[in-house]
Specification:
There is one protein chain. With 103 residues, the protein is mostly helical. The chain has one domain. The protein has helices at 3-30, 38-46, 48-66, 72-102. Helix 1 (3-30) packs parallel to helix 4 (72-102) and helix 2 (38-46) crosses helix 3. The longest helix is centred in the C-terminal third of the chain and has 31 residues, at 72-102. The model has no long low-confidence stretch (mean pLDDT 87).
Length: 103
Amino acid sequence: MGAIQTNALIISLAVLNVLDAILTAIGLHIGYAWELNPIMRWVWSNSPFWFIGIKVIFSVMLIVFCYNLHSKLFNRLLWFAFIVYCLIITQHIIVTSYAILYF
């Protein structure tokens, strides 16, 4: 995979992370979703603002620190993370659709 593809994948992961944060925050606020990560669950219970802020900061850090890393193992890890985040976003869409229809 070339450098441009790797960088595009890194940016895509960062965008998916922010989208996950927003959809999770909406779900938590409305009460139809839950945060599985115990640390982020604690952050949410103390400050929804910091919950989204930390997720955005991690997304920016991903771009800054990983933008020039290019190895076979790194690329495989990126693809794995990308697939996992796509599944998470799919789950958000399904749960949100259910919540809209039945709540």
